[in-house]
Each structure stands twice: as C-alpha cells, then as structure tokens.
Write a structure and sequence with these properties.
InterPro entries: NAD(P)-bd_dom_sf, Sc_DH/Rdtase_CS, SDR_fam. There is one protein chain. With about 260 residues, the chain is of the alpha/beta class. The protein has one domain (about 5-225): Rossmann fold (3-Layer(aba) Sandwich). About 45% of the residues lie in helices and about 15% in strands. It contains eight helices and seven strands. The protein has helices at about 15-25, 40-45, 60-75, 100-125, 150-170, 200-210, 225-230, 235-255, and strands at about 5-10, 30-35, 50-55, 80-85, 130-135, 175-180, 220. Helix 3 runs parallel beside helix 4 and helix 4 runs parallel beside helix 5. The radius of gyration is 18 Å and the shape is globular. The N and C termini lie far apart (about 45 Å). Bound molecules: NADP nicotinamide-adenine-dinucleotide phosphate (NAP). NADP nicotinamide-adenine-dinucleotide phosphate binds near residues 14 and 136.
Length: about 260
Amino acid sequence: MKPSGNTILMTGGGSGIGAALAHRLHDAGNTVIVAGRRQEALDKVAEGRANIHAMTLDVENAADVEDFAARVIAAHPGLNVLFNNAGIMRFETLTSRRDLSDAEATIVTNVLGPIRVTNALIDHLTAQPDAVIVNVTSGLAFVPLVDAPTYCATKAAIHSYTLSLRDALQGKVEVIELAPPGVQTTLTPGQEKRSMYQPLDDFADEVMRLFAAQPTPDEILVERVRGFRNAERDGKFAETMQQLNDFARKARAEAEA
Ligand SMILES: NC(=O)c1ccc[n+]([C@@H]2O[C@H](COP(=O)([O-])OP(=O)(O)OC[C@H]3O[C@@H](n4cnc5c(N)ncnc54)[C@H](OP(=O)(O)O)[C@@H]3O)[C@@H](O)[C@H]2O)c1
C-alpha cells in the first residue's frame, strides 16, 4: 500500500482501532472516509481534519451496504483502499442451551459485513490503480478464546476468506490482513482500561510502522500478536490456548469480584 495519496474507506472508523488508524492515515497524507452506525462518533473523529469524511453505514443491512457503496463511490471516485474494520465481540456460554441472537449478530457483522462491503466495492476497486483491501481479523482467529467462540470463529473465517481474496485478486488489488492482539478499546465492556491489553496509541503507531514497509507485508502483525499467529507453526498451540484461557478466566473473575 502506498503511504500517502490514497482515498481510504475505514468501516468502524468512529471509535477504537478504526478511529486511531483513520487519524494517522489522514495525517500521513491520505483522504479517509470513516463509516459506522453512529453519526456523532464519526463526526468527532472527523473534527479538525479536513480530509476525513463521515458517512453512516450499517453492515448488518445488505441494502444499506449497496446504497452506501453507490454513495461513497459517487462522492469519492478516487476511493482505492478499503479497510474492513467494523466488528463486534460478545461473550457467550456454551454449556447450556441459550438464545443465539449474539452469535447470529456476530456472524452477520463480522463475516457477512466484510463480504458485503467488499462485494459492493470490488468492481470499483479492481478498476483503480494502487487498490488495497485490508481485512481486520484478530489474534483470536488463530488461538480461540473459549468465552467468545463465535467471535473467534468469525475471525478465523475472515482469515480464510482473505487468503482466497488475495489469490483471486493477485495483480489487481493488494490484499492485507491486519490481526490485532488485545487492544484497549471499547470492543468489550471495560477493555479500554485493562492493563494487559495494548494501549491503543502504541498499537496504532506500531501498525503504521509496519504498513510503511514497501511492499507492505501480506499480514500486519504487531509484536504482541505474533505468538498467537505462529502458535500452531511453532508447536505451541495447546500451551498458548491454555495460557490465554486461564488468564482470561482469571481476569474476568477478578473484574466480577
Ligand atoms: N480491540 C481489540 O482487542 C481487538 C483485537 C482483535 C481484533 N479487533 C478487531 O478490530 C476491529 C475494531 O474493533 P475495536 O477494538 O476498535 O472496537 P470498537 O471501538 O468497538 O470498534 C468497532 C467499530 O465497528 C463499528 N460497527 C459495529 N457494528 C457495525 C455495523 N453493523 N455497521 C457498521 N459499523 C459497525 C462500530 O461503530 P458503530 O457502533 O457506530 O456502528 C465501531 O466503531 C474489530 O473488527 C475487532 O474485532 C479488536
């Protein structure tokens, strides 16, 4: 991905990782469109930055995605980079029968969301020079957190989808996977204050340094996530999964105490 002069769509750009990257990408000389459901949050991210534009989008709604894509292309015909960053994470219990609405919403937002947005923009992107798609997955795509099983499965699904996209679009669109570790955002309640998560600004700065490499690597992996990404390759999957889940259970028990 070229470092400046892009027109970038950042889904989920109204908060957290999307907002932090939108600011940095803008300040590096790119135009950024931040998209999400909350206009107010988007406006706040755009405040004081002339080349950040806010547009509402609900990836849960297929018709809205199509309508949004037509509007964003009309308003920003130079759009050449898509960050599929919008996502939700819900905790779930697997040990007894339950209502599946959280699991279903997670699949719609985290799997159908990026599939829909990519599909709505693909004909435009393949016609652009320097086109890029960045899919935001997670370290949990590679080592699951048992208390968020559907979330982890959606991220593993998008990891796989990204591999197919990269192959299919070779020579037309650069396809990059960004897999964050735990980062201090409001993705789950209280996460923004937990010290074991990476501070958002540190994470976003590290991501920008990795993106600066030319050519940009296929996978953007900050230091903290590499143990997850490589656990299986390094023969450390079982121990990494055990450590992650022991640690998470302890942290949740402390938070609930
Ligand atoms: N923070 C972490 O520890 C971590 C780790 C690994 C991966 N990630 C991934 O990083 C991405 C960003 O998460 P974050 O940590 O920055 O959390 P966040 O602050 O909650 O950001 C998620 C964003 O997605 C948007 N969104 C949710 N549902 C949407 C929908 N139906 N349509 C459009 N936008 C929607 C939200 O905006 P609205 O509510 O306004 O729509 C919000 O701005 C997610 O894909 C997440 O899975 C995060």
